[in-house]
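seq as requested:
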Amino acid sequence: MKGQEWYQAAEVAEEYEDKRFSGGGRLIDRREKRAVLDALAPLDGKRVLEVACGTGRFTVLCAQQGADITGMDISAAMLQEGRAKARSAGVADTLEFMRGDAARLPFPDDYFDAVFAMRFFHLADTPAKFLSEMARVSKDHVFFDTFKRYSTRVAYNWLLPMGSRLYSNAEVEDLLDSAGLTLRNAEHDFVLPYGFYRKLPSWLADPIRDADLAVGETPVGDAVASVSYWHAHV
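struct tokens:
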């Protein structure tokens, strides 16, 4: 997986959310959380797995919505941040964090009602294998996001030391088919890439996001979006 050593560094985990979701980055955090809840809610009483849970942003959110959720990640440092977040939110006793490999999920078939992964597939070196494992352990929902190949993300990728894996819609549809999944819904968003918003103060990010959304609502909006949210079922 791309950036695996970088991702597991303690200093990266400690600064991860402040660098990505403060200032203009809060708009990304808000949109991602809405995407997860729109796909998986109602969560009360559902058994859920989050793959590559990182610092537990979504794990804690789902626990607060009543899910019986497990957050799994390869980074011990990220999991430590997630456990601290769960304690602060008062849900430490209602969720589980565990270290594990997304290519070999340590669960039986059909164990969860829903399985999801955010900010993961752009790092995946074997996306078909990861998605097949997610499908295997889910009875119903599988949800994930990708960065789009034909978008402003291409230019942003040139600035990154390790880059990101970018996907065309057709490639994701092929991955879904290979994993035995049927697409329920796909949403495409953010004409401007995430990295742009993270550099902006809140007062400037808000009007730019409004303009971004306006473009997204036009007939070309989906074609020029940089992020896709994929909701499938087994």
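Residues 4-233 form a domain with the Rossmann fold fold (CATH 3.40.50.150).
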